[in-house]
Amino acid sequence: MTPDGAVVGSLPAVPIATPWWPEAEPVVTAIRERYGVDVTILRLLDAELDCPPGGRVTYLAEVARPVTAEPWAGTLDDHPHRQSFARPGGPAADLAWAESVLVTRGLRRTGPPVQVRSWNLSSLWRIPMVRQTVWLKVVPPFFAHEGKLLARLAGERVPTLLGHDGGRMLLAEIAGDDLYDAEPPQLLQMVTLLVGLQRSWSGRMDELLALGLPDWRAPANPLRSNLLPTTSRSVTTCSTTPPGRSKIRTGSFEGEW
User: Fold this and answer.
1) pTM of the predicted model, to two decimals?
2) 134 has which bridge partners?
3) Taking the mean position of all CA atoms in its chain, how far away is CA 159?
4) Residue 170 to residues 98, 121, 135: CA-CA distances in angstroms?
5) Does the structure show a pLDDT above 80 at 226?
6) Bridge-based pairing state of the strands 168-172 and 40-47
7) pLDDT tens readout for residues 122-171
8) Per-residue three-class SS string for 42-86
9) Beta-carbon neighbour count of residue 99 at 10 Å?
10) Which of 190, 187, 178 has its CA nearest to residue 244?
11) Which one, of 122, 31, 135, 47, lies nearest residue 85 by Cα?
């Protein structure tokens, strides 16, 4: 798909070195290496499995201009709640905003931004800079308070915020490992840190609400109040987070543009 929404076609399936559907970087890399085409992943169109990991999946991707591709007879629908970063032109607009923040701060990129992840909860890009790396994170409206909250928590043990606008945030990198495989002592340390932050704000509800945080207290949320008497529920969940790098397997990719 081109930035104006025109469907170009499809490319044959390509094996990729991760089974986790939201991980965009290995998909983008595989397409570039196989076909010499730079793509931006917009959203997942179809999957042969109900949940990750693995399986054959189909993504909607954006290209800057038409490329040689096979015909595609599918149809694309729209949805009023689809996020801007899942629409043509959305990621480009986010990157343009990030570039404007960097310029204002006198910071200079040393290479092109790298798309790392895209799914219903966020869009994540890594931007190489002189002597550092910054991250562009874009979230849906129901998480849009994150930027304001990080700004308010400046000085605490939270990411350093370089700029924010609605659901867009530009963050300085936190050095270290991703800790998908965190051991119990590390998990306890992280939970203790989180609980400490929450306790320090436990009596400041008005400030939190003013920042746009949702009010999940029962009296303020009729839906939650209605759920409280329920003592047991059956919930089916899908895991989209890698449990460990040692478990990465080969998946496959099929893209529509």
Assistant:
1) 0.86
2) 127, 172
3) 16
4) 7, 16, 6
5) no
6) unpaired
7) 999 999 999 899 999 999 999 999 999 999 999 999 999 999 999 999 99
8) EEEEEECCCCCCCCEEEEEEECCCCCCCECCCCCCCCCCCCCHHH
9) 16
10) 178
11) 122
